[in-house]
Amino acid sequence: MTTTNLPALLGAPYAAPPYFVGDDATCLFRDREVVISSWTMAPMAWPRCQVLGQQGGHGLLVDDELVRAIRTESAQAIMAWWGVSSGVVWRWRKAFGVGGRDTTPGSVLAITAAAKLGAEAMKGREYTEAERRERSERAVRLGLGRNLATGYHGRRWTAEELALLDDPALTNAEVARRTGRSWNAVRLQRLRRGEP
Question: Poorest-confidence range of 1-5, 42-46, 132-136, 156-160?
Protein backbone atom coordinates (compact mmCIF):
# COMPACT_ATOMS: atom_id res chain seq x y z
CA MET A 1 0.00 0.00 0.00
CA THR A 2 1.44 3.35 -1.00
CA THR A 3 1.13 6.34 1.30
CA THR A 4 -1.24 7.98 -1.20
CA ASN A 5 -3.80 5.25 -0.38
CA LEU A 6 -3.56 5.81 3.37
CA PRO A 7 -6.03 7.91 5.39
CA ALA A 8 -4.98 11.55 5.68
CA LEU A 9 -3.33 12.62 8.93
CA LEU A 10 -4.86 15.78 10.41
CA GLY A 11 -1.97 16.53 12.76
CA ALA A 12 0.88 15.77 10.35
CA PRO A 13 3.77 15.98 10.28
CA TYR A 14 4.68 13.64 13.12
CA ALA A 15 8.34 13.39 14.07
CA ALA A 16 9.61 10.01 15.22
CA PRO A 17 11.76 10.18 18.36
CA PRO A 18 15.51 10.26 17.57
CA TYR A 19 16.56 6.96 19.18
CA PHE A 20 18.86 4.19 18.09
CA VAL A 21 18.54 0.49 18.92
CA GLY A 22 19.89 0.01 22.44
CA ASP A 23 19.04 3.54 23.66
CA ASP A 24 17.11 3.98 26.91
CA ALA A 25 13.83 5.92 26.84
CA THR A 26 10.60 6.40 28.77
CA CYS A 27 7.38 4.95 27.35
CA LEU A 28 4.32 6.96 28.40
CA PHE A 29 1.94 4.03 27.75
CA ARG A 30 3.93 1.57 29.83
CA ASP A 31 4.90 4.29 32.34
CA ARG A 32 8.35 2.74 32.62
CA GLU A 33 11.91 2.95 31.45
CA VAL A 34 12.40 0.97 28.25
CA VAL A 35 15.14 0.08 25.80
CA ILE A 36 14.72 0.63 22.05
CA SER A 37 14.72 -2.83 20.47
CA SER A 38 14.05 -2.11 16.77
CA TRP A 39 12.24 0.15 14.33
CA THR A 40 9.01 -0.65 12.47
CA MET A 41 8.71 -0.93 8.71
CA ALA A 42 5.30 0.78 8.80
CA PRO A 43 4.64 3.85 6.61
CA MET A 44 5.35 5.93 9.73
CA ALA A 45 8.60 4.29 10.89
CA TRP A 46 8.63 4.29 14.68
CA PRO A 47 10.87 2.80 17.39
CA ARG A 48 9.79 -0.37 19.14
CA CYS A 49 10.70 -0.84 22.77
CA GLN A 50 10.85 -3.35 25.59
CA VAL A 51 10.66 -2.80 29.34
CA LEU A 52 14.16 -2.90 30.88
CA GLY A 53 15.00 -6.30 32.35
CA GLN A 54 11.96 -8.02 30.85
CA GLN A 55 11.79 -10.75 28.23
CA GLY A 56 9.32 -10.30 25.36
CA GLY A 57 6.61 -7.65 25.31
CA HIS A 58 7.92 -5.48 22.47
CA GLY A 59 5.71 -2.64 21.28
CA LEU A 60 5.79 0.87 19.89
CA LEU A 61 7.42 3.54 22.02
CA VAL A 62 4.62 5.90 23.04
CA ASP A 63 6.06 9.39 23.44
CA ASP A 64 4.42 12.84 23.44
CA GLU A 65 4.27 12.87 19.63
CA LEU A 66 2.45 9.54 19.41
CA VAL A 67 0.08 10.61 22.21
CA ARG A 68 -0.73 13.69 20.09
CA ALA A 69 -1.60 11.38 17.20
CA ILE A 70 -3.72 9.15 19.47
CA ARG A 71 -5.74 12.19 20.56
CA THR A 72 -6.06 13.64 17.05
CA GLU A 73 -6.28 10.91 14.40
CA SER A 74 -8.90 8.31 13.54
CA ALA A 75 -8.26 4.72 14.61
CA GLN A 76 -8.00 3.72 10.94
CA ALA A 77 -5.30 6.32 10.31
CA ILE A 78 -3.24 5.21 13.32
CA MET A 79 -3.55 1.54 12.34
CA ALA A 80 -2.53 2.25 8.73
CA TRP A 81 0.34 4.69 9.37
CA TRP A 82 1.88 3.13 12.49
CA GLY A 83 1.10 -0.49 11.58
CA VAL A 84 -0.76 -1.45 14.76
CA SER A 85 -3.98 -3.38 15.41
CA SER A 86 -7.35 -2.00 16.47
CA GLY A 87 -6.81 -3.56 19.92
CA VAL A 88 -3.60 -1.58 20.38
CA VAL A 89 -5.33 1.66 19.37
CA TRP A 90 -8.19 0.88 21.77
CA ARG A 91 -5.77 0.29 24.68
CA TRP A 92 -3.85 3.48 23.88
CA ARG A 93 -7.04 5.54 23.71
CA LYS A 94 -8.25 4.10 26.99
CA ALA A 95 -4.89 4.80 28.68
CA PHE A 96 -4.83 8.43 27.52
CA GLY A 97 -8.47 9.25 28.26
CA VAL A 98 -9.79 9.27 24.73
CA GLY A 99 -13.46 8.28 24.97
CA GLY A 100 -15.64 6.65 22.31
CA ARG A 101 -14.99 6.13 18.64
CA ASP A 102 -16.07 9.64 17.68
CA THR A 103 -14.04 11.69 20.15
CA THR A 104 -11.02 12.63 18.04
CA PRO A 105 -11.16 15.12 15.17
CA GLY A 106 -9.93 12.43 12.76
CA SER A 107 -12.62 9.98 13.87
CA VAL A 108 -15.36 12.58 13.48
CA LEU A 109 -14.21 13.32 9.92
CA ALA A 110 -13.96 9.61 9.03
CA ILE A 111 -17.43 8.84 10.40
CA THR A 112 -18.95 11.87 8.67
CA ALA A 113 -17.37 10.91 5.34
CA ALA A 114 -18.65 7.33 5.62
CA ALA A 115 -22.15 8.56 6.53
CA LYS A 116 -22.19 10.87 3.50
CA LEU A 117 -21.16 8.00 1.21
CA GLY A 118 -23.92 5.83 2.65
CA ALA A 119 -26.49 8.60 2.28
CA GLU A 120 -25.47 9.21 -1.34
CA ALA A 121 -25.75 5.50 -2.08
CA MET A 122 -29.24 5.39 -0.58
CA LYS A 123 -30.35 8.54 -2.42
CA GLY A 124 -29.30 7.05 -5.72
CA ARG A 125 -31.29 3.86 -5.09
CA GLU A 126 -34.84 3.76 -6.45
CA TYR A 127 -37.05 1.00 -5.06
CA THR A 128 -39.71 -0.52 -7.27
CA GLU A 129 -43.26 -0.88 -6.04
CA ALA A 130 -42.71 -4.64 -5.68
CA GLU A 131 -39.57 -4.05 -3.55
CA ARG A 132 -41.41 -1.61 -1.29
CA ARG A 133 -44.30 -4.04 -0.87
CA GLU A 134 -41.92 -6.93 -0.11
CA ARG A 135 -40.06 -4.86 2.51
CA SER A 136 -43.31 -3.77 4.11
CA GLU A 137 -44.61 -7.36 4.26
CA ARG A 138 -41.30 -8.56 5.73
CA ALA A 139 -41.41 -5.83 8.41
CA VAL A 140 -44.94 -6.92 9.38
CA ARG A 141 -44.02 -10.63 9.30
CA LEU A 142 -40.97 -10.05 11.54
CA GLY A 143 -42.81 -7.64 13.82
CA LEU A 144 -40.23 -4.90 13.28
CA GLY A 145 -42.70 -2.27 14.44
CA ARG A 146 -41.86 -3.25 18.05
CA ASN A 147 -38.44 -1.60 17.54
CA LEU A 148 -39.91 1.81 16.74
CA ALA A 149 -39.82 4.29 19.59
CA THR A 150 -43.06 6.24 19.78
CA GLY A 151 -43.51 9.78 20.95
CA TYR A 152 -41.29 12.83 20.95
CA HIS A 153 -37.56 12.19 20.40
CA GLY A 154 -36.20 15.71 20.71
CA ARG A 155 -34.66 17.65 23.58
CA ARG A 156 -37.03 18.01 26.55
CA TRP A 157 -37.98 21.42 27.90
CA THR A 158 -36.36 22.12 31.26
CA ALA A 159 -38.10 23.84 34.16
CA GLU A 160 -36.01 26.97 33.53
CA GLU A 161 -37.03 27.05 29.86
CA LEU A 162 -40.69 26.57 30.74
CA ALA A 163 -40.41 29.47 33.18
CA LEU A 164 -39.24 31.68 30.31
CA LEU A 165 -42.33 30.66 28.34
CA ASP A 166 -44.53 31.84 31.21
CA ASP A 167 -43.02 35.33 31.13
CA PRO A 168 -45.39 37.43 28.94
CA ALA A 169 -42.74 40.16 28.61
CA LEU A 170 -40.50 37.83 26.58
CA THR A 171 -41.18 37.47 22.87
CA ASN A 172 -40.94 34.13 21.09
CA ALA A 173 -37.74 35.33 19.46
CA GLU A 174 -36.17 36.22 22.82
CA VAL A 175 -37.13 32.88 24.37
CA ALA A 176 -35.75 31.11 21.29
CA ARG A 177 -32.46 33.01 21.61
CA ARG A 178 -32.12 32.19 25.33
CA THR A 179 -33.02 28.50 24.98
CA GLY A 180 -31.25 27.74 21.71
CA ARG A 181 -34.52 26.58 20.16
CA SER A 182 -36.26 27.72 16.99
CA TRP A 183 -38.86 30.48 17.03
CA ASN A 184 -41.47 27.97 15.82
CA ALA A 185 -40.63 25.50 18.60
CA VAL A 186 -41.23 28.25 21.16
CA ARG A 187 -44.50 29.27 19.47
CA LEU A 188 -45.78 25.66 19.41
CA GLN A 189 -44.83 25.05 23.05
CA ARG A 190 -46.66 28.21 24.12
CA LEU A 191 -49.74 27.11 22.15
CA ARG A 192 -49.65 23.68 23.83
CA ARG A 193 -49.55 25.41 27.21
CA GLY A 194 -52.56 27.52 26.29
CA GLU A 195 -50.63 30.76 26.07
CA PRO A 196 -51.30 33.31 23.32
Answer: 1-5
DSSP class of residue 81 equals: H
Pairwise CA distance, residues 44 & 88, whole Å: 16
**Dihedral sign, Cα of residue 151, residue 153, residue 156, residue 157:** negative
32 beta partners:
27
Go through 136-146 and write b for each residue having 16 or more CB atoms within 10 A of its CB, e for each that does not: eeeeeeeeeee
pTM, whole model, 2 decimals?
0.61
Q: Tell me the domain boundaries of the chain.
A: 9-105, 159-192
When pLDDT is averaged across residues 115-144 and rounded to a whole number, the result is 88
Tens-digit pLDDT profile for residues 66-91? 999 999 999 999 999 999 999 999 99
Given a contact cutoff of 8 angstroms between Cβ atoms, the answer to whether 60 and 47 are in contact is: yes
- Residue pair 46/37 in contact (Cβ under 8 Å)? The answer is no
DSSP 115-167: HHHHHHHHHTPPPPHHHHHHHHHHHHHHTGGGGPPPS--SPPPPHHHHHHHT-
